[in-house]
Amino acid sequence: MSATTAQPLTLEEFLQLPETKPASEYINGEIVQKPMPKGRHSRLQGKLCAAVNQVAEDRRIAYAFPELRCSFGSRSIVPDVAVFQWTRIPFIVDDEVPDNFELPPDWTIEILSPEQKPNKVIGNILHCLKYGSRLGWFLDPDDFSILVFLPEQQPLLLQGKDSLPVLPEIELALTVEQVFGWLKMGS
């Protein structure tokens, strides 16, 4: 679903608007509402955040935020998972997490929903890389594949038992098969 305004808003004007559910993003002067997450999407998002935070939060290495608004480089996007190195989280008083993140995540993860256009989602990953992200994942639950984006490299299409690259400081070993295996609950 896409909503455009008669007169294009600036990024600053967009950020003054009330939040929508599901979130809206500001891309190239256009307001685009993300689709409502469904079961597979929610499950993968939750498990990815938990897996990263289990190995990185207590040691203050990194933190994975679900649906965090990140505004930078004339866009305001809401990656499904935004992983920030601990030292790059713009804490306010007493290590409190701020509301506004005006920088790209170190690692951005997007999970394709059936209603989304893949190139728009990939465009957000490429935007993150252009502005300093070090890693991007694009999960396609329909064909159990993950496109991996690294700065200044061709994307990698990973499937099955392929090992997934993560940020080097995060001690997490995952294969594509393991990630999509999370879709089966209780087994």
* Rg, Å, rounded: 16 Å
Average pLDDT reading: 92
Give the strand content. 15-25%
The arrangement of helices and strands along the chain is: EHEEHEEEEEHEEEH
**Which range best describes the helical content: under 10%, 10-25%, 25-40%, 40-55%, 55-70% or over 70%?**
10-25%
Structural class: alpha+beta
Note poorly predicted spans: none
Biggest pleated sheet:
6 strands, mixed
**How far apart are the first and last residues' alpha carbons, in Å?**
35 Å
Number of helices: 4
Structural topology:
Blueprint lengths: L1 E2 L7 H6 L7 E4 L2 E4 L5 H18 L5 E5 L3 E3 L2 E3 L3 E5 L21 E5 L6 H13 L4 E6 L4 E5 L6 E4 L16 H6 L6
Parallel strand pairs: 8-9
Antiparallel strand pairs: 1-3, 2-3, 4-7, 5-6, 7-8, 9-10, 10-11
Summarize the structure.
By secondary structure, the chain is α+β, with helices and mostly antiparallel strands. It contains four helices and eleven strands; from the N terminus they run E-H-E-E-H-E-E-E-E-E-H-E-E-E-H.
